[in-house]
């Protein structure tokens, strides 16, 4: 994840919650510098691979910037 993500995290977080209904606000607390931790938590909660989660997050990020 990048610093650019921080600005749009609330939007990405909403999309993650729509796709993975089991995620909570606490699961999606993002703090700069803790990208690996949040990806690991998301992987554990969703069963998705980290690569798939990265693609989903960055796909959302790219859609926002276009």
Protein architecture, described:
With 66 residues, the chain is mostly helical. It is 68% helix and 0% strand. The chain is built from three helices and no strands. The chain has helices spanning 3-19, 35-46, 50-65. The longest helix is centred in the first third of the chain and has 17 residues, at 3-19. The chain is globular and about 25 Å long. The two termini are 18 Å apart. 8% of the residues are buried. The model has no long low-confidence stretch (mean pLDDT 82).
- Count of individual beta strands: 0
What is the mean predicted local confidence, pLDDT?
82
Q: Unreliable segments (pLDDT under 50, ≥5 consecutive)?
A: none
Cα end-to-end separation: 18 Å
Output the number of helix runs. 3
Q: How can the largest sheet be summarized?
A: none
Rg: 11 Å
Keywords:
single chain; 66 residues; mainly alpha; 3 helices; globular
Describe the structure in brief.
This protein is an all-alpha fold and 66 residues long. It is built from three helices and no strands.
What is the topological layout?
Blueprint: H1 3-19, H2 35-46, H3 50-65
Helix pairs in contact: 1-3
């Amino acid at each position: 994840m990048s610093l650019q993500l921080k600005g749009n995290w609330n939007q990405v977080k909403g999309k993650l919650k729509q796709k993975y209904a089991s995620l909570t606000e606490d699961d999606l607390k993002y703090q700069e510098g803790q990208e690996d931790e949040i990806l690991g938590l998301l992987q554990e909660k969703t069963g998705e691979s980290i690569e798939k989660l990265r693609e989903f997050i960055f796909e959302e990020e790219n859609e926002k910037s276009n």
